[in-house]
Amino acid sequence: MRFSLVIAAVLLSMALLPNCMRVTDGIEVDVAYQPAATPAAVRTDLGYRVRLDRAVIAVGRVELIRCDNFVLDLWKLVRAARAKAHEFSSPTSLGVPLVIDLMESAGVPLFAGTLRPPPGRYCGIRVIGMPADQDAEGLTDENLDMMQNSVVIAGRVEDEAGEDQAALLAEIWEILPCEMRFDRPLVFDGPVVESVSIQIDLTKWFDGIDFALEDSTAVQQRITENVRSSLQAVLPSKEDGL
Amino acid sequence: MIAALLAPFPIAAGASACGTCGVGDPTLTIVGFEQPKSQRVRTSATVRHRNDRIGEAQIDELRLAEQRMELAGAYSPSDRWTLSLMMPLVHRLVSAVNLAEADIWAPGDLEFRARAVIWRDRKFAPRHLVSLIGGLEFPTSSIERDAEGVPLPLEFQAGTGSWDPIAGASYTMFSDPWSLYVSSIGIFPTKGTADTKVGLSFRQTALGQFQPWRFLAFQLGVEFRIDQPGYIAGVRDPNTGGHITYGTFGLVGLPHDKVLLHFTAAVPMIQRLDGSHVEGLALTAGLVYEI
Predict the structure, then answer these.
(1) Helix (H) or strand (E) holding A7
(2) CA distance B249 to A92
């Protein structure tokens, strides 16, 4: 019995051992949105002046793209359209929906999250604009319509002479996949921390639109194309990292 | 751990009878499979190694390499009862696809088991034993989290962190040089300390042993396990649940009358685990000391 008590005491004392944990960080890519400063009025390339009252975009997913897989993956887009954003988070994609009010957050970087990809070469990033989840960050009582829309723009358009004015309202409900190439591949072969800034410049959103001649459907279509092409992924310059 | 393992040696130095002689049967048995004999005390130290993979390769895969060091003691107060206590100390290396690693040492769940022989064909050197098994796993482990504070998958935890009753039955046949061990065990986890809920687990073991020499035996067996899914904070862990069957091969040696060594390799034969979950080869090596 004495031996049993000794053994039991030893076993029980092992249960009191403290945990010991050592964590080594791996490859991490911080992603942030960087809305450009919003001027009081945007001058388009056709001479129109757009005075904005509202400009909001909802993004649902960010995904790193391998260099050997830069071709648009239609299946992924279909999945993106069918599922809610929160379901997708993985080491190469962030499924954290975010509503960005471009009138208020201009010039302020908004942290989207950290990707933790496996080693490899990554040539670009895909951002998917999509209607927000009800728990999306940035969703407020004032912008609940972003649960039905990817982009909402409201304001007024003046012609070049400033004589004619017309109301502008664009509500884009489509899923907007935007693919951006980096100016250099990101090559990961060991633990490292990298960052990617996604610049949103709405001053380009109204270029190529002749508001006097095009109907509202055509205007909305051109804005949709301009939103997709205006996003840019920017890596810190190599000097910044030194 | 080494001190704990060696502690019984000087204490028991005065004893002389060998364990297998005392029970009237020469079969080499590891802790848990033995014939109860009044006042029989055994201690053991076991090291288990296993690999586990969860998630999709190159996307969100987590790899686990685990070494589980178990210290155990078994005491038979009578010819029908055996009480055992086992405490694991677990080392885990969890590797993510982005080369991040978590190196964790932590205690696992303390386990108490009682085995009662409810039928035997004769009192001395019985050839057939039927036993009932009952026990409890204590929540001595803690739930580990990653750098973001998210709990690691349940399969990667050192224990369940919950009070888990154990119930089952076993049958053992001794027919020198052959022996057979069959057991059915159910583990019924309760809600864990960190809002975890591991699923019910049923384990079936069938093990045949051939002992051509007094000092060496060979084992061949099958281990089957079926699990219900587990939950963390009410959300199902997708990579839990399902069933797996291992084929096992083992050796048991008796280098000294009081010391028994054993080694087992368990190879996954059939894997039907839920989600993206692959279990690898499991190796076990241990030492049993008969006091």
Answers:
(1) helix A2-14
(2) 41
Nearest Cα to B45, choosing from B73, B67, B82, B16?
Answer: B73
E-strand ranges in B55-156 read 62-76, 81-96, 101-107, 111-120, 128-137
d(CA A205, CA A42): 9
Instruction: Count other C-beta atoms under 10 Å from residue B190's C-beta.
Output: 13
Residue of B46, B116, B26 whose CA lies nearest to B289: B46
Bridge partners (DSSP) of residue B178 are B175, B210
Per-residue pLDDT, B149:
72
- In angstroms, the first-to-last Cα distance of chain A is 67
Q: CB distance from A5 to chain B under 8 Å?
A: no
Residues 6+ apart with CB under 8 A from A189: A119
* Residue B121 DSSP one-character state: S
pLDDT at res. B28: 81
Round to whole Å and give the CA distance between A232 and A236.
13
Sorted by sequence, the CB contacts under 8 Å of residue B16 that are 6+ apart come out as none
Phi, psi for residue B140 in degrees, rounded to 5 = -85, -10
Residues A174-229 have pLDDT tens digits of 899 999 999 999 999 999 999 999 999 888 899 999 888 888 889 889 999 999 88
**Distance between CA atoms of residues A127 and B278, nearest Å:** 32
Residues pairing with A111 in the sheet: A32
Chain B hits for A11, Cβ within 8 Å:
4, 71-73, 85-87, 110
Q: What is the DSSP letter of A33?
A: E
Do B172 and B179 touch, CB atoms closer than 8 A?
A: yes
Is A17 in CB contact (< 8 Å) with chain B? yes
Measured on CA atoms in the order B145, B151, B157, B158, is the torsion positive or negative? Answer: positive
Closest by Cβ to B110, choosing from A15, A92, A118: A15
Record: contact A116-B98, CB cut-off 8 A: yes
What is the pTM (predicted TM-score) of this model? 0.73
CB A56 within 8 A of CB A220: no
Q: Which residue of A has its CA nearest to B42?
A: A4
Phi (first) and psi of residue B161, to 5 degrees:
65, 25
> pLDDT (tens digit, 9 = 90+) per residue, A222-234?
999 999 888 999 9
**Hey, how many other C-beta atoms are within 10 angstroms of the C-beta on B214?**
12
